[in-house]
Design goal:
It is a single chain. The chain has about 90 residues and is α+β, with helices and mostly antiparallel strands. It has one domain. It has three helices and four strands; from the N terminus they run H-E-H-E-E-E-H. It has a four-stranded antiparallel β-sheet. The termini are far apart.
Length: about 90
């Protein structure tokens, strides 16, 4: 199944010590002093989407998501999610 491929890639990423987190310095886009924003990445296998959001004591809270495109690589899907994150963060 395609979902299992995505889960395997996500598990490999996290098992190698690569935290599923996006970091963006708003100063790179808006100027001014350094101000970092962090968002966690999640794969929702029921909806077949990559999501970014926050973590709280009740778990992962999705802010936005993109449909996982199986015709593209895992990195390309992460890039699409990151582009959405940047767009939503600086607007």
């Amino acid at each position: 199944m395609r979902t299992n491929d995505v889960k395997q890639l996500f598990n490999e990423m996290t098992s190698k010590g690569r935290a599923p987190i996006f970091e963006i310095n708003l100063a790179n886009y808006l100027g001014g002093e350094d101000r970092y924003v962090y968002r966690y990445i999640n794969y929702d296998e029921n909806k077949d989407t990559l999501q970014y959001g926050t973590i709280s004591n009740s778990g992962f809270m999705c802010i936005d998501e993109v449909t996982y495109e199986h015709d593209f690589s895992f990195d390309e899907n992460l890039e699409a999610l990151f582009d959405l994150f940047v767009k939503n963060t600086i607007e």
